[in-house]
Design brief:
Largest interface: A-B, 94 and 95 residues
Number of domains of chain A: 2
CATH architecture of the largest domain in chain A: 2-Layer Sandwich
Strand content of chain A: 25-35%
Strand order of the largest sheet of chain A: 6-10-11-16-15-14-13-12
CATH superfamily of the largest domain in chain A: Bira Bifunctional Protein, Domain 2
Largest sheet of chain A: 8 strands, mixed
Number of strands of chain A: 16
Oligomer: homodimer
């Protein structure tokens, strides 16, 4: 007989069904056992009467064992969901150790167990329905992003993780023992996306891990995280890149709300507010929030400007753009020739930076000059600079951290909670 | 004015259009210049007359420079595609060095340049339309796989690359300097997929890089490649895993043929032929193909059995299953208790292994016993074995190498040609 998911039990009243899942709770009385079964779609109450041949087996079950039940569905007002199953037979598929290291409860468990212990037993932690849901929502969000990429003829590429020289500064890069030499783990797929532009692919996206050897202990930094990256050719400025990113986000949010209408987000209106760094600093000054840093925003300033935009424009997103050259990479195109401002933008969502985007400098002479002005050694950049030597369209792109996005969508306290198996300075397991 | 793609020029006869792309070829005569422009959709002939203000600029162009052209479309029987653009203005976006390290031709270029040199200049190599197409087809294939995952409620997860202990044997694993200790790069996301089953996710897929420190110099091995992985719960045997994989492949092939009907593949009929290793060896013996290895197939045997299946069943795919325990991992479930055969299957496509799949052993006592029988040390497996200690549904899954798939779909000579930026023992650049 075909298995029925718990969420569909209500459609089978009076029928015999087969259900499978974890023993969520078990209440044994002398003549009856109430067993709540949990599968990926939810929980269902089952009842084993003393007359059932399954009674003795059910009595000896441990919490979190995995079983298959056959039984008849009936309406039951007092049961969660309004239905229950009267068990005729029960098969044990996996016996759980009776001593669980952390509890599995439907809600509120995080207050009961310290985060480090929960992450040591991440596979049990994730059984809580609200934790499983984090990854269902991630799946939906990515599906929405991909709909945009699909509808706009993007080509998907997979960048390598191994590099022969560290990208950019060489700081914060992991070193790998690579046969008789060293390799480095990519801190960003950006150079490879740009290579795709030099190959004439015009529009590409990449979904790939990003590695950062940062000794950070914040709520938003990991040593390894998934990046969603895109790059597009023939842009006129960074505004075209912002337009594209808005399209992706709208598509992603629409998909999340389609599948999970209860999610506390809104499909953002386009265009998103765009504020230059100079304007942002003026606004922050008027709000009495100042960091002392002239050309960048502190986390406090990010939150304050987001709150301001929410109040003034009723928008959860804001682009901060036209960064000073001192806060721009050598590959960021300047606003105009000779300007001290660049075509860089950061996207803040609910007070947190989720993206950096830019139009890149594709002219090899200016690119080289800007690298030299930053005091960079050209030798390790040779491969990169060569990408632009044999023709390359003007282009720009963005890198998006889906973990941070999910963290803000679900109001999670830490990006680790939005990561399947977080890795940081201290944690490499399970 | 909005840019028109080269493929859409025919819809604009008599109209003024803007097109952008690379200077593919340039034929300068005293009174007229023929310039073929290449974009991601194809090539178009443009004509610059001596009377045009663009004439002097066009005359000085180098091959592969990137330009934007404005001009009027007209029918032209002798032009490729049957249309040409009469140029009124021309803007140079990027100047290519006149000395190209490798040529960019529409077809047949691979005979002209040795592979190592082509890969040194991979971004130019990929400009050839038939190379760009490899990645368009990959994008379509993955889109088809994702349709299956989407329609069947799979959850997408991202596995970590960093591990605290080497998975499985410890051989062929890359070591990373991780702050004050060592980390290891995942050789497979399998353990993390299985963890998802222990978390009750029931159906998951992962798209992630896989790292193998193998000193292989074959046409089908890389040190880093993209893996498509899935895992499903409540399977009755490895046949359920094969059923699921067939569904994915059918969906992927349908998508490729929808977007690129000229591709030389067929949507395979279901079920795919399934032959046990014992049967396969009998067939091979009758064909006079023998490797001397009793329990595994040599590359020659893989080709021979595929040819046999093609001839007998007119099918490009064949599952070889029920492997001997000596060729099964400790985590492969045995066919029956005490059997020397396991629930492992390999999928061959056009003579090449593209997948290994199995039902896993989810019972902690048998799993431990099987690891001990293989002479494995249990300490590094502790985290993994613990996944099954607190309840875990029976499950199985597969790992698919999309690079190998694409290689066989397009009949490429080497998996490197199906890889954006291949990495092997010798190659870490560009």
């Amino acid at each position: 007989m075909k298995r029925t998911y718990n969420k569909d039990i209500g459609e089978q009243v009076g029928q015999e069904v087969v259900v499978s899942g974890f023993v969520h709770t078990l209440r044994v009385q002398s003549k009856i056992i109430f067993l709540i079964l949990r599968d990926v779609t939810g929980v269902i109450q089952t009842v084993v009467e003393a007359s059932s041949p399954a009674f003795e087996t059910a009595k000896g079950l441990s919490h979190e064992s995995v079983i298959t039940i056959t039984g008849r569905v009936k309406e039951a007002k007092q049961a969660p969901g309004g239905f229950e199953i009267n068990v005729s037979s029960l098969e044990v598929l996996s016996v759980a150790d009776p001593e669980l290291p952390i509890p599995v409860v439907v809600k509120g468990s995080d207050e009961e167990t310290e985060a480090p212990t929960r992450f040591d037993y991440r596979w049990i932690d994730l059984r809580k329905p609200e934790k499983t849901k984090i990854f269902k929502i991630w799946t939906a969000l990515e599906k929405g992003f991909r709909k945009y990429w699909d509808n706009n003829n993007f080509i998907q590429l997979y960048p390598p993780a191994f590099m022969s020289t560290p990208s950019e500064t060489g700081a914060e890069v992991f070193t790998v023992n690579y046969f008789d030499r060293k390799a480095y783990l990519a801190q960003s797929p950006q150079f490879y996306k740009q290579m795709g532009m030099a190959s004439g692919f015009e529009k590409v996206f990449m979904v790939a891990p990003v590695f950062r050897a940062e000794e950070s202990f914040t709520t938003r930094h990991l040593t390894e995280f998934t990046g969603w990256d895109f790059e597009i050719s023939y842009v006129n400025s960074h505004h075209d890149v912002m337009d594209a990113e808005e399209g992706m986000i709208v598509s992603g949010f629409e998909q999340v709300l389609k599948e999970f209408p209860e999610t506390k987000i809104e499909v953002p209106s386009q265009p998103f507010p765009r504020i230059t760094m100079l304007e942002a600093k003026k606004i922050l000054k008027s709000l009495g929030v100042e960091s002392g840093e002239e050309h960048d925003l502190s986390p406090e300033e990010e939150r304050a400007i987001s709150e301001y935009v929410k109040k003034e424009h009723n928008h959860d997103f804001v682009f901060i753009h036209e960064y000073h050259k001192s806060k721009s990479a050598f590959y960021h195109m300047r606003l105009e020739e000779g300007s001290d401002r660049s075509r860089r933008a950061d996207l803040l969502y609910r007070g947190l930076e989720v993206t950096t985007l830019a139009q890149r400098e594709h002219r090899v002479d200016i690119l080289t000059k800007q690298a030299e002005e930053k005091g960079m050694s050209l030798e390790p950049l040779k491969d990169y600079i060569n990408f632009f030597r044999y023709g390359c369209p003007p282009h720009g792109g963005a890198g998006i951290g889906p973990g941070r996005f999910i963290m803000k969508i679900l109001d999670l306290p830490n990006v680790r909670e939005a990561t399947y198996l977080p890795r940081d300075v201290k944690r490499l397991n399970p």
